[in-house]
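re: ur question from earlier - yeah i can do the single chain one, its not a big deal. heres the input i used so u can compare w yours
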Amino acid sequence: MTLQVFWYQGKLQDSGILALRIDDPGLIYGATVFTTLRVYGGSLDHPMTNWTGHCDRLKHSLNIFGWPEPNWQQIREGASAMIAHWSVLRVTIFPDGRELITGRSLPGDLAAKQQQGISVVVWDAPQFRRSLPDHKTGNYLACWLALQGAKQQGADDAILVDDRGQWLETSIGNLWGWQDGRWWTPPDNGGILPGLMRSQLIDWLRSQGQLVQEEPWTEDLIRGFEAMAMSNSVMELVPIRQVRIGEQVRHYSPNPAIFASFRRFFDPSIDLTG
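and the output i got, formated as tokens:
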């Protein structure tokens, strides 16, 4: 069955079961690095897939951690094989260079969320921050707990904060806010994961002559936002229509005209002049 197909150590497998030693650091410590990518046009070479960017992020973390590099040709072979089954791939590297590639489909309600927006909860607990936030490691417990807590409250996602109450990111993506004729996003100075989609959007917006401000999200700044959104490499950009902060609820339009500025990035054929 497709749901059981994965790639591990140079082989495509369909057992749905991965065998690991009981003392494997990836199992007992979450000692892995990974990246999740959306495959556009069924090709790793499609510009929007950004295969090189995802591999470079893995290489950066491996170098920082002092781990050996894997067989990159074998990883590409595995990713190419997995495309036949999945449109979203997760490439995981273990400390000894082993590779694991798993897959999933795009969220079934993604189009609806992109049109209608999502609701989020501010998870006002500084301890719920990702471990080693500059890197995508296998230790995602804090994000997972925050996301589960948000879902229990009927929300789609959770916003993580630092010990000063500044908003950092959501449990699954980077934050965007619009005010004063520009986009604002929290800085990548060690408190957030500098997402690949975030970086691509920043570069593209600036190439179009638009202003993007990377500043800490304090309460004074957040209070002035006219629109909000989150981004990641799978969901692209999703408006945030509602933010719950304790007992307070703030509402934003999920379809302000300003979001049109992103549409050309995801679909260059769209004519925004008419």
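The two ends are 47 Å apart (CA to CA). not sure if urs matches, ping me
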